[in-house]
Amino acid sequence: MSSRNASFDLPPTTGSMRVARHVVLELMRAWGVPHDREDAALLVTELVANVVDHVEGDAELTLEIGASENWLRIAVVDGSAIRPVVRELSLDEPRGRGMRMVQAIADRWGAEDHLGGKRVWFELRPPGR
């Protein structure tokens, strides 16, 4: 399989979480990638939810998806330079576990500066690799 890439812009609204999840699942199916689709869908939902929850203003978010035989890489780019934080688990807080899930499920993840904002990404290996 050669590498495949896609990128598209979404508004930072709650509806974009569902759209991002759907697009990731459809692209993975169309591209025939062997990576875990449910893990990818869950993690992209968490990254988009972080933008919706924490980025103020009318900044757009960009979803980037890249796939090869060895890796699936999904990134969310937004206009905020504030990096995500993996929080300690707290039974008192109903939310705030998203980045902990990304850390636990993804094979690799990170955040980097991007044009005055940031890119938060994760990578998944295909099964058996």
What do these coordinates show?
With about 130 residues, this protein is α+β, with helices and mostly antiparallel strands. The chain has helices at about 15-30, 35-55, 100-105, and strands spanning about 5-10, 60-65, 70-80, 110-115, 115-125. A five-stranded antiparallel beta sheet has the order 1-2-3-5-4. Strand 2 (about 60-65) and strand 3 (about 70-80) form a beta hairpin. The longest helix has 18 residues, at about 15-30. The protein is globular. The two termini are about 15 Å apart.
- The Rg value, from CA coordinates, equals 14 Å
* Overall geometric form: globular
Distance between the termini: 15 Å
Average pLDDT confidence is 89
Computed structural class: alpha+beta
- The count of strands amounts to 5
Number of helices: 3
Beta-strand percentage? Answer: 25-35%
